[in-house]
Amino acid sequence: LYLNGNILGDIAMRRFAVALRENREIKISVFEVENNGIGAHGIRGLAHALFRNRSIKRLALSQNLIGADGAGLLAQGLRMSNTLEHLGLSKNVLGDIGVKFIAKALRRVAPSGDNHDQEANRSLRVLELEGNNLTDISVEEILVSLRRNRHVHSVAIGQNDEVSEEGIAKLDDGLAENRYLYKLDRAACYIQKLYRGRRHRIKKAALKRKQAFEEGRQGLLPLATEPEAVSGKGR
Question: Is 102 in contact with 75 (CB distance < 8 Å)?
Fold first, then answer.
């Protein structure tokens, strides 16, 4: 569903969010609402929709007015989503505080005080954060998440003048390591799957041999008892 540049605003966005949340028959993999004047109030409903709607894989929200407060609300939905793979948040005045909310949604948070253990999003692959007045503080937050979440492979952080070249280099290294380790994990899962399949086949073959042995043994029992009956008649 492509609705870019329609000046929807918060009210229309909340109506769309209600439809996505309540109507399970709506199946859309792409939802683009860039440049629509959407702020924190519009994002609140969308955050709930991300949890209820399991079909959205790409969500494009660039060039809106989400801000740090909206990022905090969106992070709640992102943490609970297990289908979203691509999230576009460029040019939304997120700042370091807003990115901190998003980054924390990508890593598990241990319980503290009244807070319960919160699982991390494990589906997101691509995150766009260009032009959000970010500094190296945001880079450090993202790097912490990358060390705990190997699923994120791409983070766009250009057009943020306060991010140093050193910060960009660190982020590139972290993403490269993530991609490498993710491939290793996939290879390990594939090998494990093959091993389990081989174990299953061996177990199945052993069961068949056992059944054949039991059937053969049952067939031989009458023959084993027949001589005793004959010898008894002779006496």
Answer: yes
| 154-156 β-sheet, strand order | 30-32, 58-60, 86-88, 126-128, 154-156
Give, for 126, the enclosing helix (H) or strand (E).
strand 126-128
Whether 162 contacts 136, CB under 8 Å = yes
3-state secondary structure of 207: helix
Q: How far apart are CA 86 and CA 121, in angstroms?
A: 12
Q: For residue 81, give the 3-state DSSP assignment.
A: coil
The residue that leads in pLDDT, 200 or 42, is 42
Q: What is the pLDDT of residues 143-199, one digit of tens each?
A: 999 988 888 999 999 999 999 999 999 999 999 988 876 666 556 666 766 666 666
pLDDT level of residue 45 (50, 70, 90 thresholds):
confident
- Show the tokens assigned to 2: 């492509």
Q: Copy the structure tokens of residue 194.
A: 């093959």
SS3 of 127, please?
strand
> Cα separation of 224 and 203, whole Å?
31
Res. 136: pLDDT tops 80: yes
pLDDT at 40 exceeding the cut of 70:
yes
76-113 burial code (b ≥16 CB/10 A, e <16): bbbbbbeebbbbbbbbbbbbbebbbbbbbbbbeeeeee
